[in-house]
Amino acid sequence: MSKKYLVTGGAGYVGSVVAAHLLEAGHEVTVLDDLSTGFREGVPAGATFIEGRIQDAARWLDSTYDGVLHFAASSQVGESVVNPEKYWLNNVGGSTALLAAMRSAGVRTLVFSSTAATYGEPATVPIRESAPTSPTNPYGATKLAVDHMISGECAAHGLAAVSLRYFNVAGAYGAHGERHDPESHLIPLVLQVAQGRRDAISVYGDDYPTPDGTCIRDYIHVADLADAHLLALRAAESGSHLICNLGNGSGFSVREVIETVRKVTGHPIPEIIAERRGGDPAALVASADTARERLGWSPSRSDLAGIVTDAWTFAQTVSSQSMGVAEA
């Protein structure tokens, strides 16, 4: 049955892919985004677009909506360390306003884009939802604060909510892919080297207790992630806040990612070994057992070469479009 959803941050990377999946499933979609980090052309065709802030969501949210999928947040870890006030204001303040708007309009279903950064440096892997939450930066701390707010809203006001804690999202879905500015994620950074936009890729530490000495991370295809959001809408129960980790349950090292990019693109990727970054755990891998059991979700696009191929196709498309604009 067709439903109506508000997607906050739907002009961004993950939000746009989820919005596209909702439309393909036959739902009515409104995207709310202030375009501070998203792109107008990222809004899927067929979605209604509102350029605005989630702090003002009450202006547009009404009882005709069946639910909200919330992606609007500041998400750069490094920036959060030097400008924490921005993150508390945007992530926590914005979410507070959104929850109030939902309560006022009687919209009682929420899927929240949370993060593995809520766990900090885990004592054991794979990481389960029962692991202690001890974020090491304001970004993770603000996301955890919003999770606590949602739990309170569910208990006090009957909200039906699911928080999905992502690990490393990658890949692309058609016209929707990763294009952060500044870019901080490994796969698009290595692809920039292949495109000649960057001289080399920095490898931050090659002496970790891993098979090749570099950090291991759990990469999940953005389309698999989108599937989980649609399943979460069905699984949400009134008065309950379900938290699920999303990942493949196995990881790839930095060097494995670089070598895969070499094979996919056919380009040499020079490496520069740099000092370790503070707070970088040797391995971050998710246990997605809860998502499998409670959502009925399992990733189907876990091959690293496939993830990189989709990201490479998107990166080349964006570069071609940018060149066309420059030449015009």
Kindly describe this structure:
- 38% of the residues lie in helices and 18% in strands.
- It is an alpha/beta fold and 328 residues long.
- The strands form 4 sheets. The chain has a 7-stranded parallel β-sheet with strand order 3-2-1-4-5-6-11, with helices on both faces.
- It is globular and about 55 Å long.
- The N and C termini lie far apart (45 Å).
Main traits of this protein?
single chain; 328 residues; alpha/beta; seven-stranded parallel sheet; 9 helices; 38% helix; globular; disordered C terminus
Structural category is alpha/beta
Unreliable residue runs: 323-328
Question: Number of helical runs?
Answer: 9
Strand line-up of the largest beta sheet: 3-2-1-4-5-6-11
Give the overall shape, derived from the CA principal axes.
Answer: globular
How would you describe the oligomerization state of the chains in this entry?
A: single chain
End-to-end Cα distance, whole Å, is: 45 Å
Q: What portion of the residues fall into strands of 2 or more residues?
A: 15-25%
Secondary-structure element order, N to C: EHEEEHHEHEEHEEEHEEHEEHH
Cα-atom radius of gyration: 19 Å
Instruction: Give the overall pLDDT as a whole number.
Output: 94
Give the % helix: 25-40%
Care to count the β-strands? 14
**Biggest sheet statistics:** 7 strands, parallel
What is the strand and helix layout of this fold?
Layout: E1 4-8, H1 13-24, E2 28-33, E3 48-51, E4 67-70, H2 77-82, H3 84-105, E5 109-115, H4 138-157, E6 160-166, E7 168-170, H5 186-194, E8 201-204, E9 216-217, E10 219-221, H6 222-235, E11 241-246, E12 252-253, H7 254-265, E13 271-274, E14 283-284, H8 289-295, H9 304-327
Helix pairs in contact: 1-6, 3-4, 5-7, 5-9, 7-9
